[in-house]
Design a protein that fits this description.
This protein is α+β, with helices and mostly antiparallel strands. The protein has a single domain, classed as VSR Endonuclease (Endonuclease, Chain A, 3-Layer(aba) Sandwich), CATH 3.40.960. Helices cover 38% and strands 13% of the residues. It contains 4 helices and 4 strands; from the N terminus they run ααβββαβα. It has a 4-stranded mixed β-sheet with strand order 1-2-3-4, with helices on both faces. The N and C termini lie far apart (44 Å).
Length: 129
């Protein structure tokens, strides 16, 4: 067993629960696209060596939540390019966007991302709102 596999096995035992920001974003995602995005920031799914926050596996879409205290702007491009190597389209959301006063603009940004990346199926309507 290599070091990466051992580390992944160690994480699986953590049973991490979503924090307040992740719970808030999950509520927004479920409101916009019920049952489409799954919270996987509990280390339940890995893409390469990274653990995304939310995923829609059938549409190869990841949504990452960045906290200003933990992440730097430069990480956005790195993270997006990393997941793109595995065929995933990625949207980065910053925790400050979850503020109630920013909520409508955040919802519009999520919807614009889904539409821009052609993740809306016209016939099957996977991402219907």
């Amino acid at each position: 067993m290599n070091v990466v596999q051992e580390k992944i096995l160690d994480y699986k035992g953590l049973n991490k629960k979503p924090n307040y920001s992740e719970t808030t974003l999950n509520k927004i995602l479920q409101e916009l696209y019920p049952g489409v995005f799954t919270y996987v920031g509990d280390f339940s799914i890995w893409v390469g060596r990274k653990n995304p926050d939310f995923i829609c596996e059938s549409r190869k879409t990841i949504i990452e939540l960045f906290g200003e205290y933990r992440h730097k702007r430069e990480e956005e491009k790195e993270r997006t390019e990393y997941f793109n190597k595995y065929g995933y389209q990625t949207l980065i959301i910053w925790a400050k966007e979850l503020d109630f006063k920013n909520r409508q603009s955040l919802k519009e940004r999520i919807q614009a991302f889904i539409e821009k990346e052609n993740l809306v199926e016209k016939e099957n309507v996977l991402f219907a709102n």
